[in-house]
## 1
Amino acid sequence: MDHIANHPATADMQASDAAHHLHPFTDTAALNEKGARIITSANGVMLRDSEGNEILDGMAGLWCVNIGYGRNELADVASRQMRELPYYNTFFQTSHPAVIALAEKIASLTPGDLNRTFFSCGGSDANDTNIRLVRHYWASLGKPNKTHIIARKNGYHGSAVGSASLGGMEAMHAQGGLPIPGISHIAQPYWYAEGGELSPEDFGLQAAQALEAEIERLGEDNVAAFIAEPVQGAGGVIVPPSTYWPEIQRICDAHEILLIADEVITGFGRTGAWFGSETYGIKPDIMTIAKGLSSGYQPIGGSVLSEKLAAVFAEKGGEFNHGYTYSGHPVAAAVALENLRILDEENIVSTVAKDTGPYLAKRWAELGEHPLVGETRSSGLMAAIELTPDAAARAPFAESGSVGPICRDHCVDNHLVMRHVGDKMIIAPPLVITKPEIDTLIERAFKALDLTLKDATAQGLMKSGSR
Ligand code: PXG
């Protein structure tokens, strides 16, 4: 593996990082005591840290490096684009070849008539754009009261003020007075934890019908849109029961509510189709995209609009007073286009659908035999396991959130990045992961589970709590 070896000593970099860098979603005091793990290079599905350890990246960075690390084609395209046109904007009646080609390519890949993209730098700002888009859409149609947006508890839509308000993360709302007004949250389709005695199918219907109840409470003349992830990612890879999405679609259609599918994680092959909307039979009016759009090689995202919306913006909307300096950035656009070419020409999405996705599903299910595991689930190449002290009862730990971090630490010590969300363990590896690499991932996960069970037992954590 090519790697940069001439970096300062790890301890020096850690000290400098601790002194000058404020990390996202991080307890700074705890990090500074321990020191950050410093990743210096990567290739395929493997990371290398500053101590020379090679670690299997079960999270594709942050769910984004779909084509894997080390694709020089993207570096070459970036270099060429920087020499030719490093920056120009897409405001004020200008455009450039890279963004034009990318917008056309996205239109060719997205389902139905999702044909027009407003570009952002990532998912958070794309979802902030969506708030303004849907409100401007309804106002342009003479319905200025249709402003309210319904989202879901434990959904994740980003970290800016608007997108964090769309998200349903209580810990985020607790800091800084969120959510902003005009947004409310309904129950999530999380059968394992919230389904009780209901079958997954009955529970899926019940969870979807919470949307209809909320629309009726607010009055449909006041509701602009419903936003949700096809499969919740950051919330813990929550795969909805099969009954959920058809009922959500029926309710949105019946009440004239725009449906926003946040495909930031599920887009670009993650679930074994180009978009999660295809896997789950969703017909969105707007799709949020980011992450896999460029496989994380450049920061870029967007909101893809159906013809119904695009037509209103093209005909009645007047000026849309909104945009980012880097909307459709040429280097990011050129890199994203090259990434989509690779995903397309190398049949990476169909390999997930036909080969590695089913293989992961089979091998991942084997983890369910471990005494610490209450459920396994997956969709394409995203998967979760529920850790539990009592699998038969689907019981949470009495000390909620105490065992997941232990398991995460054992994973990393055994050279596997697997993330914990409370006491759920989740993976979303690069889409180019091979079957032997999946075998390695499973082997390391089993070992981490064994060590976690030993620690949790020794620390007296194997006690059931209540939901
Ligand atoms: N929507 C969804 C569905 C996401 O998963 C965003 C929007 C925001 O995108 P940006 O590009 O602004 O980050 C996301 C991001 C995690 C984790 O630990 C997940 C995300 C970001 C950071 C960490 O699971 N998702």
## 2
Amino acid sequence: MTPVTFHNTLSRQNEAIQPTKGNVIGMYCCGPTVYAQAHIGNFRTFLAQDVMRRTIQTAGYKVIHVRNLTDVDDKTIAKSVAEAKPLREVTEHWTEVFHDDCERLNLLKPQIEPKATEHIPEQTSMIESLIEKENAYATEDGSVYFRVSSFPEYGALSRVKDRELTTDAASDTPNDSDEYERDSMADFVLWKSRKPTDGDVYWDSPWGQGRPGWHLECSAMSMKYLSNNLDIHSGGVDLTFPHHDNEIAQSECSCGHKFFKHWIHCAHLLVDGGKMSKSLNNFYTVDDILKKGYQPVVLRYALTSGHYRQTINFTLDSLNAAQSALTRLKKFSDDILAATSLKRSTLLKSIDKGKQTKAPWAKFQKAWDQLSNDLNIAGALGAIFTAIKEINSTELSNEEAAENAIAFHKLVYALGYDLDSVVIEKPKIEAPEEIKALAQQRWEAKQAKDWTAADQFRAQLQEKGWLVKDTKDSYEIETI
Ligand code: AMP
Ligand code: ZN
């Protein structure tokens, strides 16, 4: 196993991952709220987590990947009420859409994908133990709150200052202070008593009808599935506080020991330099990008190629850069495989099964060093392109070609780029003056509605190996 390090939000340091048990890494990722199609910002985070998992596996570890589905909260309930549909019908539809997008973007499926609504007993028993230990209290209306003052380490992850805790920031329902009688404004809700706006979404509990608070589900489900592998917990940077600080507080108080060791947060995706928002009309889903004619692998490249801890600015231009980078990667893959007896799909399958972990990194050592050092994908890609240049200008023995082919495809696997789906663009060749002049004459004939002359010019161009294509208000020429 080669070391893999990630920045740990808890210590603010890069730390090597250390399995709690054997060579298995438990990895819990906060999943989507299934009330609408996830946007490409959400996918930036899910993709970074996917490359994390693939990188850990490529280093030789086994990963148990758990990613939840938030299928009950204020947003999902509001959608089911607005559409007059049962909550389950709404969340199942958006879960399917999410799964389709994940498949298109080549995300590995988590082995466990628990739903909040299917883990109500686990959540209520966690509340019961917190009440028993006096870390939580019920209010008259049948809600239950976590008592922040009972956990002196509260806020260690985000290093939130005391003054911030006097606001509503710790709650997942920021404006509910009038409706509930909390002992302190910093206390956050574990169980929300049933309200008329909840429609028929409620469960019975020892405190009356209601539903769990959002923070609780991730604690209950991660403890259920990863209690022996509390290794990595991750989400977008907005989840650091209050979501993850609340998770740590309620989990450590109820189970009496440390919760996850390594906390990893992904920075946000900006669009055209600003926050994505529907009102600014810069809010993209995977469908929006594919409709513009880009392959999913191109979107995956554009969303993964920056460092996950730095905000990236998404532009349509970044998709064009991604397309040409992928074309270079695919061309190299085809060439190096042609020099060996290896096949891409067979090789990737054996890497996925963990069979190539001992193979040398050959000329791709630097790229692996970058990737395994806090997932520096940008650095790894730079090193890959440098290695490609070097290999292309060297005579390799058969053995060296095979070693480099395996090493390169281990990186392709870790980055999750499906090179088979990359559509190679035709190289753009500047047309000679004579061809440009013929194309212009054809255009002018067409404008003058002289169709016979236009067709003759087209035929002349074709004879010389050039194709003319009309665009909205002009034309393009390319080689046949
Ligand atoms: P949600 O469905 O809102 O619970 O979010 C799913 C995941 O996407 C969480 O890990 C969020 O932190 C993350 N996320 C939300 N907005 C963005 C964004 N603009 N860029 C990157 N990640 C985001
Ligand atoms: Zn969570």
